[in-house]
Amino acid sequence: MKGLFARKPLDLIMQEPEVEQNQLRRVLGPMGLVSLGIGVVVGAGIFVLSGHAAAAYAGPAIVLSFIISAIGCALAGLCYAEFASMIPISGSAYTYSYATLGELLAWIIGWDLVLEYLFGASTVAVGWSGYVVSFLKDFGIIIPAALCQAPLSYSAGAGWQTTGAILNFPAIFIVALMTTLLVIGIKESTRVNNFIVIVKLIVIALFICVGVFFIKVANWMPFLPPNTGNFGEFGWSGVIRGAGVIFFAYIGFDAISTAAQEARNPQRDMPIGILGSLAACTVIFILMSGVLTGIMKYTSLSVPDPIAVAVNAAGPGIAWLRPFIKLGAIAGLSSVVLVLLMAQPRVFFAMARDGLLPAGFAKVHPRFKTPYIPTILTGCVAIMVSGIFPINILGELVSIGTLLAFVIVCVGVLVLRYSHPEYPRVFRTPWVPFVPVAGAVVTLLQMVFLPFDTWMRLIIWMAIGMVIYFFYSRKHSRLRILSPKE
Hints:
Helices cover 67% and strands 2% of the residues. It is an all-alpha fold. It is built from 18 helices and two strands. About 1% of the residues have low confidence. The chain is globular.
């Protein structure tokens, strides 16, 4: 049992990149990391979920929901920043857990990150498909429903059902395209991401700067709609529930930490990338949600494309912006798919380096210097998942997986502060133990309020992971081989 909680020495973790022949290229600077963060965070949350959360839960006070959700993410982000500066190695929360909480919990978080990154990429690919179909329809190009929808659907009352569709081919296309790009190289992928980020930031700026002139103050009244008598339907409880719903908007900022081994100066640049992108995205979300609810009454925003609908409602003076809004959403979702598909293989890379997965997962392409085997595998699985499953099932799995990762990272920072205070920390999480404890509590509470079915899927997923760990990973663990007495 002791071996299950054996911790990987920090000096061993830091030596690995120096002794390995398979080197990833260190090409990312602070602005490249911030761009990665903006690329993955500004996507489905603001372009899709913001309208539903305003219409069903918070009204114009959705602005406060974004702030509350940002506070929870900031607490976890501060913990991620300390770890990323102290352990600038690929693997994100998996590597941090191995150094602080032991091998078993490291495996659990590594397996859990598959839910966040792989299933997250699949979720966003389904959303990308919806916007592309709508965009093409505006130009008279109709994609049959059988070719752009999931063949399976799920509802709590009826369970699993078939829809009559074949596959979601647009979702499959974007995953395949981004996977190919990631195999070619991180530098090339970053260039594409930077271009996409510029496009969607221009579109967002247009929406905010033009939309502000079409705001009707009456649409903001009342700013905090009175509670309907049901918990979570408007009032302050609605604002809090809205924060939980739009939490998906912030998912992915931690993906920056998976690129630590490809950062030029990770001890300095990783905190800048994590906290800088989180701050920038929070400002964007507040401004966009404020303009959105000002242009159109919140009661009419529960639609798949609320930003585009609001532009239509503003009248002919702003209708020209509609195709650009959809284009910005498509660009935004494309970069999210790209960064999430980049993050997952690097977690597999770190796990394979430790012996917990087959050695092939740690192979680096001799020419492109990318972890091509796990990248291709991740892409193939994401293609199947995005082509078959509905977005609501995928989204719930992503949320619970991300929240669990946040909890473990916050606890890990606290453990390492007291167990190894001597370790060098270029960036230190402030107000310890308050920040990590508060971060763990806030994220754990959000997990508690997720649906029971989501918890059951998480338990089944973790059970599969435990089987793999005890029948393969535990026997091949590099740490266990090096320290057989453990």
